[in-house]
Amino acid sequence: MTKKKYDKFECEKLVVLGDLYYHDYNYRYPDTDNDYIFDFLKSFGDDLICMKGNCDTELDIKLSSFTFLRDLSLLYVDGLNIYITHGDKYSERNCQNLKNLKGILVYGHEHRPYIYEQGKFVYINTGSISLPRGTEKASYTIYDNRKFTIYDVEGKIINSISI
């Protein structure tokens, strides 16, 4: 997601689901610019919600000027319980700790975009904007008026669900 697309969609928040620098800020993953990522995220100020991913180190968190949330957070939006997490601890495959909850679980750990409904949950994996896996294209998810839409970076809709 670019700042231009964020403004075009008139977004109120940018939710990042972790693995900001993938291995750590000082590690230079091929074709990534950690300084750019840091400055880009910092530019959102209070509009940024950032989850800690399994590849985010304590040093990353300490050096970043924004807050990282850990494990699982609840956003109550438009009457919906939207749980956000990185996905390494909570996902559609690992949800036994969520058995007393219901709502939408949004995560990204697997780097593959999908949406599906099962039982009391809608599971949304946003994919990855910078390191998609397999044959998937880089992707991001937009929430608007009880609808989640996953887009690839070219603007093509990958999947969507209205709730």
Describe the structure.
The structure is a single chain. By secondary structure, this protein is mainly β. 13% of the residues lie in helices and 34% in strands. It contains three helices and eleven strands, in the order H-E-H-E-H-E-E-E-E-E-E-E-E-E. The protein has helices at residues 3-8, 34-42, 58-63, and strands at residues 14-16, 48-51, 68-69, 72-77, 80-85, 103-107, 113-118, 121-126, 139-144, 147-152, 157-162. The strands form three sheets. A five-stranded mixed beta sheet has the order 4-5-6-8-7, with no helix packed on it. Strands 1-2-3 form a three-stranded parallel beta sheet, with no helix packed on it. The longest helix has 9 residues, at 34-42. The mean pLDDT is 87.
Summary tags:
mainly beta, five-stranded mixed sheet, 3 helices, 11 strands
Query: Element order, helices and strands?
Result: HEHEHEEEEEEEEE
Strand arrangement within the widest β-sheet reads: 4-5-6-8-7
The amount of beta strand, in percent, is 25-35%
Give the terminus-to-terminus CA distance. Answer: 23 Å
Overall mean confidence score, pLDDT: 87
Report the radius of gyration as a whole number of Å. 15 Å
> What is the number of beta strands?
11
Shape, please?
Answer: globular
Total of helices = 3
